[in-house]
Amino acid sequence: MNDVKKIVHEMAELVRGSYGPRGKETLIFCPPEAPILTSSGYTIFHYADKSSCKKNPIKQLVMQTIRSLYREIGDGVTQFVLMLDLSLSEMQRHHDITLYTWACSFASLKESLIKLCNEIANEIIIPVKLEFNANTRKPCKELFNAAQCIVRTSLAGAFGSNAVEYLSNMVLDWVFRTVEGCLYLPQSSNEFKVAIAKILHKSKALIIQLQNGQLDKSRVAGHSEYLLRNPHYNRVYDQFGQSQRFVLLMGDLCDDMNLNITLQVKTNCDVKAALESSLWALEKFLLKLLHEYQVNLLLVTGNCPPHILDLCRRHGLCCFYYLEKDDVLELAERANIHYLVSINDPVSESNVGWNTGPLQTNRLGGILWTLFSCLKPTSAIVVPQLLLYGSCKSLTQQYYYAIRKALRVLCAWMDTGYSLPGGQAIERVLAQKLLSSKDKSTAVVVHALIGTWGILHENLTSSSQRTKGSRLLLEQLILPIDYQGCIYERKCLLETKELGRIESHCVYQGDGRNIGLVHPVQRTECILKYYLDTLQQLCRIDSIHTIRKQK
């Protein structure tokens, strides 16, 4: 148990030292999930000591659980780690109980605990009306407000209130604008989740991080717009009128495409004839694009030699080369066309894209981008790009992770379409109902629930005092209002020993529904499942680990 406790406690100390007034990072966060550095507790574990996870089976197990929890609900990692640490500390006090007994107790406790959690949730569940106007294709007011509460809760405290509000509105604009462009509007929460999941899946490629700008410059691109990184753009390419027909080529555009073929020739004349034949084949390909399909733009991911560029210009073709493959693949999906891999591939209308507006090339964030302003609309789900600005690279990266976290939480929320009061309100009621139990495994869970609430609550309310004992926390827990949470409210000044006077936020207790502090309905249940499963597995793996060390 000492090995397990040491590893988990190191992780918990990493959490405690990275958020709040007493942390090494002077960022202010809101319970129950204190976003760490990049608005998710998962990120700090992802970057901290990654190599050691492969060597230690205990740390590997905890890290795998953290990743699974983050992928499923995008939240709760901080709460999970703190609960795990408090539980192991409490278990160490009971030396008379074996690890096998603990494992069996947690396994039997899981089903009854999840059932009780669901019963509590059913009493205070907040249903969401999921409707879209058939004419305007906009969400109903109830759906928009509920989604706004979910996103703001997931990001509360990560940045200033203005930044959180702007990021929340931008995420919702991105989601609902994507749905607005779909051929069919969602009729259920599962259909809505499909659209959000697609945005999350594509967000890594579609969020364009731009430095040296303020957040309020960020915007969601239009459905017919697409920004393409163009590192070798030249002003001589500014020759287009009001429309372009383009073809995508994944590879090099040159006259020696078949480099693996060896030609046996006897004279220099034969060499010259072979090269001219290869160049003639390329010229034939270009003329076919030009005359049969009216193509005037080639987008190439590979190289294009100078003499080939001259050949293209002579025929009135423009060529952008050394483009990013991911950008070209996304453009192919956006334009609903197929790309070519060789000049020998058969060409048809399905390979030709159409942009009906002028091209615009500008420098954004130190990179040249070519804007396709009027791509031909398609029937597929089109996820527009998101132009994300930040004053520096690190802050832009934090905004990026915050947006991805908000999308994950929205996906988890749309599993059922229901919400629950936030601020660990459910956890506190669950702890109240379990207080009368004499079972030691239940007492460990109660200690973890109350202690985690106390740590996260103290993070915003106290200065540099140590966390209160569990008895004092119990007295605070048993209050007349059942569903009290920690409500993020307004700025104040705190006196700390390590940092002196700093700006923080004060909180008050109350029902989170009154000000829109809500979470997905399965959030608490999911955290409890992972928490109990991990405790059970840690007890078993520690037994095996101890036996191997003794051998």
UniProtKB/TrEMBL annotation:
Source organism, top-level taxon: Eukaryota
Molecular function via GO: ATP binding
Record GO biological process: chaperone-mediated protein complex assembly
UniProt xrefs under Gene3D superfamilies: GroEL, GroEL-like equatorial domain, TCP-1-like chaperonin intermediate domain
InterPro entries: BBS10, Cpn60/GroEL/TCP-1, GroEL-like_apical_dom_sf, GROEL-like_equatorial_sf, TCP-1-like_intermed_sf
Protein known as: Uncharacterized protein
Originating species: Thraustotheca clavata
Lineage: Eukaryota, Sar, Stramenopiles, Oomycota, Saprolegniomycetes
